[in-house]
TrEMBL record:
<dbReference type="Pfam" id="PF00096">
    <property type="entry name" value="zf-C2H2"/>
</dbReference>
<keyword id="KW-0804">Transcription</keyword>
<dbReference type="InterPro" id="IPR050826">
    <property type="entry name" value="Krueppel_C2H2_ZnFinger"/>
</dbReference>
<keyword id="KW-0539">Nucleus</keyword>
<feature type="domain" description="C2H2-type">
    <location>
        <begin position="138"/>
        <end position="165"/>
    </location>
</feature>
<keyword id="KW-0238">DNA-binding</keyword>
<comment type="similarity">
    <text>Belongs to the krueppel C2H2-type zinc-finger protein family.</text>
</comment>
<dbReference type="InterPro" id="IPR036236">
    <property type="entry name" value="Znf_C2H2_sf"/>
</dbReference>
<protein>
    <recommendedName>
        <fullName>C2H2-type domain-containing protein</fullName>
    </recommendedName>
</protein>
<feature type="domain" description="C2H2-type">
    <location>
        <begin position="56"/>
        <end position="83"/>
    </location>
</feature>
<dbReference type="GO" id="GO:0008270">
    <property type="term" value="F:zinc ion binding"/>
</dbReference>
<keyword id="KW-0862">Zinc</keyword>
<dbReference type="InterPro" id="IPR013087">
    <property type="entry name" value="Znf_C2H2_type"/>
</dbReference>
<dbReference type="GO" id="GO:0005634">
    <property type="term" value="C:nucleus"/>
</dbReference>
<feature type="domain" description="C2H2-type">
    <location>
        <begin position="84"/>
        <end position="109"/>
    </location>
</feature>
<dbReference type="GO" id="GO:0003677">
    <property type="term" value="F:DNA binding"/>
</dbReference>
<keyword id="KW-0863">Zinc-finger</keyword>
Length: 169
């Protein structure tokens, strides 16, 4: 009786150790960013972060998600579920408890390699780095003026309308 053949799985490199066939660790690398993953499946899921592919959609709103776990987290919003509580202050969260906890600890694990400035959220670092690259991905559809941050575009767009955010008393 022949044993299992692993040659039919060329995308899963194997290491033979003590007579057992074991998968090698972090053997699949992303050609876009260089991150390594333990399986081709995990690499393919990661690649969606570069392609923008969102194969999982909310049946209620049609909003797309790259990851099934993100869809599940979103679906909890429909029922108002807030399953995560902060042991420090007792507040409840739908998601991002870890990010909230950094407000208590002051932890800022995301470092800008150019300026040495630290951020508590990865998205804040990404926004900051656009200042270094000059990237301005948010453009006004009325006048085509571009901005590095969405928070800069929104007030600019109000300048094209009658909408006023400040009132005289």
């Amino acid at each position: 009786v022949d044993g299992p053949s692993y040659s039919s799985y060329p995308e899963e490199p194997q290491t033979v150790r003590d007579g057992a066939v074991l998968p090698t660790e972090k053997s699949f690398s992303c050609t876009e960013c260089g991150k390594s993953f333990p399986s081709k499946f995990h690499l393919n899921v990661h690649i969606r972060s570069h392609t923008g592919e969102k194969p999982h959609s909310c049946p209620e709103f049609g909003k797309g998600f790259s990851y099934k776990t993100s869809l599940y987290r979103h679906q909890r919003l429909h029922i108002g579920e807030k399953p995560y509580s902060c042991p420090e202050c007792g507040k409840y969260f739908k998601s991002k408890l870890v990010t909230h906890q950094r407000s208590h600890t002051g932890e800022k694990p995301f470092l800008c390699p150019e300026r040495g400035k630290c951020f508590s959220e990865k998205s804040s670092l990404s926004t900051h780095q656009k200042l270094h690259t000059g990237e301005k991905p948010y453009s006004c559809p009325k006048c085509e003026k571009c901005f590095a941050k969405k928070s800069e575009l929104v007030p600019h767009q109000r300048s094209h309308t009658e909408e006023k955010t400040y009132f005289c008393s």
